[in-house]
Amino acid sequence: MRSLIILFLLFTIGIVNAQPAQKLVRSGNNEYNNGHFKDAEIDYRKALTKEPNSPKAAFNLGNSLYKQQNFQEASAQYLKLAQSENKEAPKANVYYNLGNSLLENKKYNESIDAYKMALRQNPKDEDTRYNLSYAMSKLQQQKKQEQNKKQEQKQKQQQQKQQQQPPEPKPNMSKQDANRMLNAMNNNEKRTLDKTKNKQTVPAQNIPEKDW
Predict the structure, then answer these.
(1) Dmax (CA) of the chain
(2) What is the domain-level CATH number for residue 84?
């Protein structure tokens, strides 16, 4: 009899705790619909302290964080709910919102995985398909930008190396050596001219034209 009384008390305590949690969720929903996302976040967090396994409070908390552009914390909230064993959590919507928050945070690989998980839960969701293709195109753009940056860095490094290389040393030559070289070149030119003058010119042979 005593154990039954204890179980009854625990059951009634659970109902009492669930009621204020639901009220806080409803209050948070009203704040959310009015655009007061920070106030909604506070209500959802309070609801989770009353009922930690509430999928509505957890999911809506992620939405309020997303609306405040706190994409990193929103992603963590959605991921936690997606990995939970709570069967009441709408996993397709959770993975979809997870993909959106990761996409906004430019984590394209992770967002693609999240959208694929959402499609496994709901293969007919066209919004998820569209966002998946968009995330894949953004991933390709990101890869191209990274390749271009690497090429630019290589070019800059090559230019810096060329600038850092010391100039080739110029040969040291005195004025006397330069004059000697000029005189030698002039003497060689005179000798070649004299040799050509002394040679006899040979007349060119008459070459007959070809017959048709």
Answers:
(1) 145
(2) 1.25.40.10
